[in-house]
Amino acid sequence: MTRFVTQLAAAAGLALMASTAWAQASLPVPGEVEGKVRYVFKQQQEVEMADGTMLSATSPQQLEQLQPGTSVKVLFVDDGRRKEIQSVEPLAQ
Question: DSSP character for 61?
Answer without folding.
Answer: G
